[in-house]
């Protein structure tokens, strides 16, 4: 892909993330093109259908969260790393859940999703599990907590959170971290 084509694709994906997060299923590809500053033809040159655009946007978002999770997990203090990761993921949760809700019907294990989305979700989950296991090994998280527990709590926070609720979200994440035995 040419450099300008790759740059346009990235602009479209970034714009799509914002537009879909704001408008959900009502978002149009025209709005994405306008936000990205490209023509609708550019959007469709990169993504044949709106569903392809949604899937690519979800994959990009999951990959971005995975990179953040892996960077935070490299911190020398495993407990603080998990706390920072939980805060980051709770803040990103509403966008993530909106994108995942726009995908075709699927179960909690990702059954029914396209292969790229499933792979991105699995990689993200492995990074989250790795951060949890590091914190548990350091004695900075309850040993009985599972990755499923963390995912459930993050989904609950995401569905209950408005992006403008910064202080309330911080308190809620603090309460969750207290329950998980994670110092913060």
From TrEMBL:
InterPro entries: Homeodomain-like_sf, HTH-type_TetR-like_transc_reg, HTH_TetR, Tet_transcr_reg_TetR-rel_C_sf, TetR_SbtR-like_C. Residues 6-65 form the HTH tetR-type domain. Pfam families: TetR_C_43, TetR_N. Coiled coil: none annotated. Residues 28-47 bind DNA. Keywords: DNA-binding, Transcription, Transcription regulation. This is TetR/AcrR family transcriptional regulator. It comes from Streptomyces lunalinharesii.
């Amino acid at each position: 892909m040419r450099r300008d084509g790759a740059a346009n694709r990235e602009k479209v994906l970034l714009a799509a993330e914002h537009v879909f997060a704001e408008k959900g299923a009502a978002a149009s590809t025209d709005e994405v093109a306008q936000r990205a500053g490209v023509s609708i033809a550019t959007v469709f040159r990169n993504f044949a259908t709106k569903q392809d655009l949604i899937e690519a946007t979800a994959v990009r978002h999951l990959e971005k969260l995975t990179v953040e999770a892996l960077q935070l997990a490299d911190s020398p203090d495993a407990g603080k790393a998990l706390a920072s990761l939980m805060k980051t993921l709770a803040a990103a949760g509403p966008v993530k859940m909106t994108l995942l809700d726009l995908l075709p019907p699927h179960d909690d294990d990702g059954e029914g999703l396209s292969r790229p989305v499933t792979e991105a979700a699995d990689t993200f989950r492995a990074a989250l599990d790795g951060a949890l296991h590091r914190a548990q090994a350091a004695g900075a998280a309850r040993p009985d907590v599972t990755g499923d527990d963390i995912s459930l709590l993050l989904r609950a926070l995401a569905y209950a959170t408005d992006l403008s609720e910064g202080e309330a979200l911080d308190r809620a994440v603090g309460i969750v971290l207290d329950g998980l035995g994670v110092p913060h």
